[in-house]
Amino acid sequence: MLIGSAALPAKFFVVDSGADKVFKYSASGTAGASFALQTGDNDPRGAAASSDGSLLWILDKNKTVNLHNADGCNSN
């Protein structure tokens, strides 16, 4: 489920394992859309994004990395 403005270009992403969500923020810190973590993101520790924000790597405690599109869909 997306909340906020889906059109907002994401500058950075924050993974919240307690909420099981990824939150997008603009360069100014304005909150954008969020999406639920996918299967395989059991205990996320962080995220890294491509320079254009189109790909997102979720780093998990179990030493796996899951690749997602910027809208949250798995790309593995």
TrEMBL record:
Alphabetical list of InterPro entries matching this protein: 6-blade_b-propeller_TolB-like
Domain of life of the organism encoding this protein: Bacteria
Cited Gene3D superfamilies: TolB, C-terminal domain
The protein's name in its UniProt record: Uncharacterized protein
